[in-house]
Automatic annotation (TrEMBL):
InterPro entries: FAD-bd_oxidored_4_C (IPR004113), FAD-bd_PCMH (IPR016166), FAD-bd_PCMH-like_sf (IPR036318), FAD-bd_PCMH_sub1 (IPR016167), FAD-bd_PCMH_sub2 (IPR016169), FAD-linked_Oxase-like_C (IPR016164), FAD-oxidored/transferase_4 (IPR051264), Oxid_FAD_bind_N (IPR006094). It is an enzyme of class 1 (oxidoreductase). This is D-2-hydroxyglutarate dehydrogenase, mitochondrial. The lineage of its organism: Eukaryota, Fungi, Fungi incertae sedis, Chytridiomycota, Chytridiomycota incertae sedis. Keywords: FAD, Flavoprotein, Metal-binding, Mitochondrion, Oxidoreductase, Signal, Transit peptide, Zinc.
């Protein structure tokens, strides 16, 4: 690596950091493409076992009596409509049923007695037509990695899982357009494209489990949004099954199509309330030939913003990620994820992970070296490390990507993903720490002795997206009330959004008015009536309870 060696000669601090990164034995760095197995630590598992039903946690969300309770004839119909014997799971096998009733955080627990796993669009259509005709409520489910309680039932809704719809239908290497079933797992698609020199335009820590249909239904953001934009731009068309079973093509796999309303946009981020997405066509970019990853330690949020401004100036079109996390996040990752080591020793208040992607390594190295020289000589950065190969780059990414998992292993985890003007991102974290400390719920000295153990911030700085997370001994109404209305009021006051990327689901439905006006919500309700007149799709969620 002559260019990086030259760079480190000019930058003594960086040289130390690079040496530290190089010194990490290879076997200690977590493997390149981990298939995430989201296991929980014993404390969290115990909390899960004791977890109350969602219907008990939200007693005001009563079961809609218009929805039919399933009987043997209904189950017999579904068994005839779905050809695969593994396509229907009933209460006869409770162990198989349970994961579909429980969300990833182990915070929400439904009571469905039936999971349907169709293998084709026509099977989805037959199922939904029957449900609509018979007033049977349905929860569409992808990889069940959603973080707002949207993917699991509240009462006894039927779970319609897209797991068995996992075929790649077509890939055009000239246009880069990929068409696939909605149940394809994101990481599988990315690996498939990698062999062809392309890349999925989105990436998230849950990639080993989440599905492209779920990504589109939640309008997932993630780690590549800074570079490739949101799914509202990259999804070109989709196939949707309406609540009454009609199969509707929303557009064609074309970059330009100016005929009619762009209905697919309505389904992006509709969280299973308007229809079931059964296939997606998405524009995929070329995989970059030259990728650099650096992790830097920064002592204050003001410095972090300076580094961000400098990165945009010096790295411009090759900047592909700018992720930040605070010291506690790093410490929790080190505690809970095996074999993780920070690539340098300096203990700083914030860390930033910067990625560049381009097509010319010399050109990118030059730009990165100018940037690193600037931020280090100007004192914006305390210490840093530059990955010297793909394994080290993956090791750095692994730290960022396992923050969510580490927090979940601490016990009860309150998760908020917020859009806030960049300059105010960390003010939100400090405000929450102060408020909870004043109420005796959080120990401000960092001793983790309060009902709330940690209040941390991390996220996609480049997108103005803060993940504010609190870990606690469990979820209680008292804590929820101490956190939620004040937080959402603060976000409204700051001109932000109460959901940057995870969506509304069950968790944020009562607070939608902090981000949307009454007229806007009325219009949303009218559209829901048009698309799903009987309200069978994902009831009790997304809209403020009436
Ligand atoms: C470790 C971890 C990291 C994460 N990182 C990010 C991140 O960086 N950015 C981000 O945006 N999110 C992130 N998430 C949240 C989650 O992964 C995303 O919301 C993801 O897009 C959900 O996809 P899924 O297939 O798991 O959907 P599910 O969780 O199964 O469902 C989510 C919602 O979409 C609906 N739905 C699912 N499939 C369909 C379909 N085919 N048709 C209609 N509706 C459907 C469901 O009804 C539900 O309302 C993370 C989660 C975890 C656990």
């Amino acid at each position: 690596m002559p260019r990086l060696a030259a760079l480190s000669t000019r930058l003594p601090l960086l040289r130390t950091a690079v040496a530290a990164a190089s010194a990490i034995p290879r076997r200690r760095i977590v493997c390149l493409l981990p298939k995430r197995a989201f296991s929980l630590a014993p404390t969290a598992r115990a909390a899960a076992a004791a977890q109350a039903l969602t219907s008990a946690q939200y007693p005001t969300l009563r079961r809609n009596p218009d929805f039919k309770t399933l009987n043997d004839n209904d189950v017999a119909f579904f068994k005839s409509a779905i050809k695969s014997p593994a396509g229907v799971i009933t209460a006869d096998t409770p162990d198989e049923l349970e994961p579909f009733n429980q969300d990833w955080m182990r915070r929400f627990k439904g009571q469905s007695t039936l999971v349907l796993r169709p293998s084709s669009t026509s099977e989805v259509s037959a199922v939904l037509k029957y449900c609509n005709d018979n007033n049977i409520a349905v929860v569409p489910q992808g990889g069940n990695t959603g973080l707002v309680g949207g993917s699991v039932p509240v009462h006894d809704e039927v779970v319609l899982s897209l797991q068995n719809m996992n075929q790649i239908r077509e890939f055009d290497p000239v246009s880069g357009i990929l068409t696939c079933d909605a149940g394809c797992v994101l990481e599988v698609l990315d690996n498939h494209l990698a062999q062809k020199g392309f890349i999925m335009p989105l990436d998230l820590g849950a990639k080993g489990s989440c599905q492209i249909g779920g990504n589109v239904a939640t309008n997932a953001g993630g780690l590549r949004l800074l570079r490739y934009g949101s799914l509202h731009g990259t999804v070109l068309s989709m196939e949707v099954v309406m609540a009454d079973g009609r199969i509707v093509e929303c557009g064609k796999p074309l970059r330009k199509d100016n005929t009619g309303f762009d209905l697919k946009q309505l389904f992006i981020g509709s969280e299973g309330t308007l229809g079931v997405i059964t296939s997606v066509s998405i524009l995929t970019p070329r995989r970059s030939r030259a990728v650099n990853v650096a992790m830097l330690g920064v002592s204050s949020f003001d410095h972090l913003m300076e580094v961000f401004k400098q990165a945009k100036m010096d790295l411009n079109e090759i900047l592909s990620a700018f992720e930040f996390f605070d010291r506690t996040c790093l410490n929790l990752v080190k505690r809970h994820i095996p074999n993780v080591r920070a690539p340098f020793d300096a203990d700083t208040r914030f860390y930033v992970l910067i990625e560049t992607s381009g097509s010319n390594k010399d050109h990118d190295d030059d730009k990165l070296s100018t940037f690193l020289e600037h931020v280090m000589t100007e004192g914006m950065v305390e210490d840093g490390a530059l990955a010297q190969d793909a394994t080290q780059a993956a090791g750095m990414w692994n730290i960022r990507e396992t923050i969510t998992e580490s927090l979940a292993k601490e016990g009860g985890n309150y998760k908020y993903d917020l859009s806030v003007p960049v300059a105010q991102l960390y003010d939100v974290v400090e405000e929450m720490q102060k408020q909870l400390a004043e109420r005796g719920l959080y120990a401000a000295d960092g001793s983790a002795t309060g009902a709330v153990k940690h209040v941390v911030g991390f996220g996609h700085m480049g997108d103005g997206n803060l993940h504010l997370n609190l870990t606690s001994t469990g979820w209680t109404t008292e804590l929820t009330q101490a956190i939620e209305p004040p937080l959402y009021k603060s976000i409204q006051r700051r001109g932000g959004s109460i959901s940057a990327e995870h969506g509304v689901g069950l968790m944020k439905a009562p607070y939608l008015s902090y981000s949307k006006s009454a007229d806007f919500i009325d219009l949303m309700k009218s559209m829901k009536k048009l698309f799903d007149p009987k309200g069978i799709l994902n009831p009790y969620k997304y809209f403020p309870p009436s």
